[in-house]
Amino acid sequence: MIKFVIKDISGMVMVFDEQGEQLPEYQGQYGELRRRVLEDAPQEAIFGCFPGDEDELKIIPREEW
What we know:
Elements: E1 2-7, E2 12-17, E3 28-29, H1 30-40, E4 46-49, E5 58-60
């Protein structure tokens, strides 16, 4: 089950389960995966991004992802 969803500055998406294991079926470009991730992620999933050139992950509401 999806627990963490991260998008980097280049638009690459990485999705992890509750054990911290990456889910390769959700790895790829944001434009290709956005709808699928939002449909499959439970409401308690945590969404984040690396805005601009920052090194620190920013947690954002799922609606902004």
